[in-house]
Specification:
Helix content is about 20%, strand content about 25%. It has 5 helices and 19 strands. This is TauD/TfdA family dioxygenase.
Amino acid sequence: MLMKRTISAVQKDTNVCADIEGFDFASYDERDIAEIRRLWLQHGVLRFKQANITDEQQVRFSRHFGEFVIHPKQLQEGGHPTHPEILVISNQMKDGKPSGALGNSEATWHTDTWFYERPPAGAILRAIAVPPTGGDTYFLSTYRAFETLPEAVAKAIDGRQIFFQNVYDKTGKLRLGRSEPKSQDFREWSGIVHPLVRHHGETGRKALYLGGTIEGSWIVGMPLDESRSLLAELWDHTTGSEDVFVQVWDEGDIMMWDNRCTMHRRDSFDPSYIRIMHRTTTAGERPV
C-alpha cells in the first residue's frame, strides 16, 4: 500500500506566496482541502507548479472554496464554451474575434471586482499556454500594506469608508449595463461604498482596501483634493513595496490567491505570442 503524500508549503522569499507540494488534484479528501484552505489563509497566495490538470479538475477543486462567481468579462469575450464557471483569459483570435478576455495589454495593480457589493473571496488561475517572455503576474499583501503604514496615516484612515464608482472600467469603457452619467461629479454616479480598512472574513486580520484605481475613488466625507492626496499616498505605500512575489509562468502552473488580502497586476507581452489562462472565481462576503 502506497503511503499518502504529506501536503507542505514552501515559503517563497516574500510574505505573500508559498509553493504547495504533495497535493494530488486527481485524488484528495476533505482533510487535504482543509489543509489547503489553512495554507491559503496563512499565505494569501499559493502556487502549484506545473500541475497540468484538466478544466473539470479545476472546476471540481474550486468548488470546495465557495460558490462560483461569474466575472464581468465572462459575459462578454471571456466565456468558456463548455464550462460556465471558467473565465478564459487569452489574446488568441478566432474567426476575427477575441477568444478570451484582456488581450496582451498590461493589467495594473488591483483587487478583483472591487466595485461589487460582495467582491470575490478568491481566484484560481491556470496556465494553458504562455509566451516565452512577458505576461508575468505580481502579488502583494494588503495585510502588510496596512500593518506597515506610518502611525499618523493609520489614524487618518481609521474608520473611513471608500466610494468606488462602477460606471466605467479602468480603460474608460462603460461597464456592461451602464449608461453615460449626467453628472460630471463621479461621487454622484452609481457605485459602492466599502471600508478603507477591511477585516478579513475568516482570519479577522485588517487589510488595506484600495480597489483598482485612484480615479473614481473617494474617501467618503473628505474634500476631494484631500481624498486624492491621501489615496495617492496609500497607493504609493502599497504598490511601492519591494515585498512582491513575481510569478513567471510555465504551462500547467496554478496560482490561487485570496482576493480579500492581496492585490495583483500583470505585465504586457508580445501579441505575436499566444497566452491562454483559465480562471475560476469564488464568492466572498461584503467587506466590513
